């Protein structure tokens, strides 16, 4: 069976759930081979989880250049691996960085790329969300090696025992890849909350919060949830962009999504409408979010959220 390269998304020494989802899709097409870019010891440590989810090999590229420069060095590496191994497909997470790496590598190898995939079939065709998830289209790359960027939470990761054999990659990026150097990395204060795209519960706030996210955060903490935000809240500077849910933010698909003071614009829906249960709190009973909600509360979020938090804490 042909290899399928899977670019590993990892942080703080942990492989992200989205990568395990990619491995599940990759097994439909061929033999998954994970590509881990980072510290050699971290690659070794990640190999166990990757092997348990079907990665036959884990290619570890640990040249320090990858940590010093933005995406171009990663793109060179991925293109070189594609040229050398001629895989059946390359799967990456549809986040902004990995999507850019894949797009650059696809250009270098004369290949086509499909983004925002939500399903991947054995023949490499994908179901893709377009126009802010208004339509699903089925597409297939017609040239070169198919590069596919898959939205997180598109499937449940399925364990499958495989070797997870670590292989060091000796490829060294050229000077041409050293275009944008990272000069400073600011450490984020740890919130203790789960990662937004992986959380089972997300509580999001919008313009209706007026910039005061305390009630949103309190409910999130009582539920062990991640905090999300609408673009209006992010654009106003009330919450960091990394928490934005929607077409130009993150795609989430938790068991429970709580939208507080969010109207339900199509671009917001694009990032949360596949949530299993949606609860909306809005003081306007005609807000479009209620068309989508499984459970709606017409009311002031500053009254409703604290009551919900008290009720959860009392359990
Ligand atoms: P509003 O639409 O202003 O809604 C605020 C809601 O809060 C209203 O329904 C109001 O009734 C309610 N409210 C007010 N006070 C209270 C209160 N005290 N209690 C309860 N309810 C209250 N948006 C995203 O979210 N994510 C994206 O990724 C995104 N990408 C975009 C990409 C493009 C190309 C474009 C053009 C737009 C994008 N948008 C995105 C913006 C989107 O169109 C909306 O403008 C945005 O989602 C609105 O945010 P909101 O619901 O918080 O604000």
TrEMBL record:
* Record keywords, A-Z: Electron transport, FAD, Flavoprotein, Transport
Q: Where is the Electron transfer flavoprotein alpha/beta-subunit N-terminal domain?
A: 4-186
Which amino acids does the record list as binding FAD?
207, 230-231, 244-248, 261-268, 282
| GO BP terms in the entry | fatty acid beta-oxidation using acyl-CoA dehydrogenase
Query: Known InterPro entries for this protein?
Result: DHS-like_NAD/FAD-binding_dom, ETF_a/b_N, ETF_a/FixB, ETF_asu_C, ETF_asu_C_CS, Rossmann-like_a/b/a_fold
The cofactor(s) it depends on are: FAD
List, alphabetically, the Gene3D superfamilies matched. HUPs (3.40.50.620), TPP-binding domain (3.40.50.1220)
Q: Name one GO molecular function term.
A: electron transfer activity
Q: Which Pfam families match?
A: ETF (PF01012), ETF_alpha (PF00766)
Cofactor binding mode and count = Binds 1 FAD per dimer.
Presence of keyword Coiled coil = no
Q: Which SMART domains does UniProt cross-reference here?
A: ETF (SM00893)
Q: Which domain of life is it from?
A: Bacteria
Q: Where is the signal peptide?
A: none
Q: Per the record's keyword annotation, is Transport included, yes or no?
A: yes
This protein's assembly is summarised as: Heterodimer of an alpha and a beta subunit.
- What family, per the record? Belongs to the ETF alpha-subunit/FixB family.
Q: What does this protein do?
A: The electron transfer flavoprotein serves as a specific electron acceptor for other dehydrogenases. It transfers the electrons to the main respiratory chain via ETF-ubiquinone oxidoreductase (ETF dehydrogenase).
Question: Would you tell me the protein name for this molecule?
Answer: Electron transfer flavoprotein alpha subunit apoprotein
Q: Which organism is it from?
A: Brevibacterium jeotgali
């Amino acid at each position: 069976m042909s290899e399928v390269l899977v670019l590993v998304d990892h942080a703080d020494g942990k492989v992200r759930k989205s990568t395990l989802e990619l491995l599940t899709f990759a097994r439909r097409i061929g033999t998954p081979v994970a590509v881990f870019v980072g510290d050699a010891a971290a690659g070794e440590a990640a190999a166990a989880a990757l092997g348990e989810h079907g990665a036959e090999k884990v290619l570890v590229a640990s040249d320090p250049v990858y940590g010093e420069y933005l995406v171009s060095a990663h793109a060179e590496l991925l293109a070189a691996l594609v040229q050398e191994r001629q895989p059946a497909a390359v799967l990456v997470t549809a986040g902004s960085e990995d999507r850019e790496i894949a797009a650059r590598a696809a250009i270098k190898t004369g290949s086509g790329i499909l983004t925002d995939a939500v399903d991947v079939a054995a023949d490499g065709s994908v179901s893709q969300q377009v126009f802010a998830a208004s339509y699903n289209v089925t597409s297939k790359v017609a040239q070169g090696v198919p590069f596919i960027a898959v939205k997180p939470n598109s499937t449940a990761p399925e364990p499958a025992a495989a070797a997870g054999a670590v292989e060091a990659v000796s490829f060294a990026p050229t000077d041409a890849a050293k275009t944008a150097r990272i000069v400073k990395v600011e450490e984020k204060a740890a919130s203790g909350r789960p990662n937004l795209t992986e959380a089972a519960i997300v509580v999001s706030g919008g313009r209706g919060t007026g910039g005061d996210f305390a009630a949103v955060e309190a409910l999130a903490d009582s539920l062990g949830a991640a905090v999300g935000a609408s673009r209006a809240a992010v654009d106003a500077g009330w919450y960091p962009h990394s928490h934005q849910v929607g077409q130009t933010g993150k795609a989430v698909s938790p068991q429970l999504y709580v939208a507080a003071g969010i109207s339900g614009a199509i671009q917001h829906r694009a990032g949360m409408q596949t949530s299993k249960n949606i609860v909306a709190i809005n003081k306007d009973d005609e807000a479009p979010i209620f068309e989508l909600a499984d459970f709606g509360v017409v009311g002031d979020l500053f009254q409703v959220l604290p009551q919900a938090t008290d009720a959860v804490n009392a359990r």
